Amino acid sequence: MNVFDVGIIGGGVIGQGIAYELSKAGLKTAVFESGEIGGKATSAAAGMLGAHSENEKRDIFFELCLESRNLYPSLAKELLEQSGVDIELVQEGMYRLAFTEEEGRSLQSLADENELEWHSRENVLANEPHVSEDIAGALWLKHDGQVKGSSVCHAYAKGARKYGASIFEQCPVFDVIKEGKAYKLVTSQGVFICGKVVVSSGVWSGFFFEKLGLRNPMKPVKGECLAIKPKKLVINKTVFYEHCYIVPKKDGTVIIGATSYENDWDTHPTVKGVSELMIKVQKIMPEIGSEPVVSAWSSLRPQTADGWPYFAEHPEHEGIFFATGHYRNGILLAPITSLIVKDMILKTNQYERYVHSFSLNRLLSDAKGR
């Protein structure tokens, strides 16, 4: 019979990470993915672990990002041992460029002894000689790094299966129905009974918010990227300016991203979007304009009203949990999200401050104010 302790709706990096941690803890776990494992936003991500690149404020969200980033070195080793998959962790740091003296002064003010270090124009060009000579300098984000997002997802999935998890691909969930103390998941592959349910299906999580009597807080933000395979340029570190980044991968590919179009459900890259990226990236690295483009793609990021994710149990339906709304930070936040959800389900209260800060109270308060 199709009975599980926990059913996870969504098989991207968040869902697979949760499945890994829960099955490792001994729970009989199932993942229901409407397409292929990691086939949507996860596979489209550049894989940046940018705790600092995503945050100006030093608030609870920054702490969440930092803690999750710091889990990756040990996680990379664990997943390699459990799954045989190398998640391609790179810890070369990132350069956040300044092009004006004012931008330079602003970035210098952020420098500290541990995480952030100001580099002069000459220092940056010595390390990354193909960066524009027009820069004023850069802030080196020493410990921010990158991984291959799809590899993280598949490593989690293989590890979860090793611990006994079942993963159903091409298996959309149509309904979640209360069945005694459990829940009935109606899917394209039949009916499954799950003691608890986790909704972690990115921007499509909104469907389940509404199904379960809550306002849909999710908004799609289309992001487009392109990849080049440089024949001449050697790029060592991730480099970014404003919302354009250059991410060198281990296989020699360089990912350039990303556009940002709110409330756009279209998943095809456009001439407009790719052209926008090409203009921006040549300001950062003029010589990159002569390198061959090998591919372009787009995906939908799940954004919430305040840009923060939700880690929460449904206020009226005990045993239904949400872990969604990660926006641009799904890869970065996958390790900590997986542990937080395990914490909520097992009631160990190790991450109570995050559960409190990223609860559905934000959504409910917003609804009352409307």
From TrEMBL:
Domain FAD dependent oxidoreductase, chain residue ranges per copy: 5-343
Pathway field: Cofactor biosynthesis; thiamine diphosphate biosynthesis
A Pfam family of this chain: DAO
This protein's GO CC annotations: cytoplasm
Documented EC number(s): 1.4.3.19
Molecular function terms from GO: flavin adenine dinucleotide binding; glycine oxidase activity
Any one GO BP annotation for this protein: thiamine diphosphate biosynthetic process
Reactions catalysed according to its record: glycine + O2 + H2O = glyoxylate + H2O2 + NH4(+)
SUPFAM superfamilies: FAD-linked reductases, C-terminal domain, FAD/NAD(P)-binding domain
Keyword annotations from UniProtKB, A to Z: Oxidoreductase, Thiamine biosynthesis
Lineage top rank: taxon: Bacteria
Name of the protein in its database record: glycine oxidase
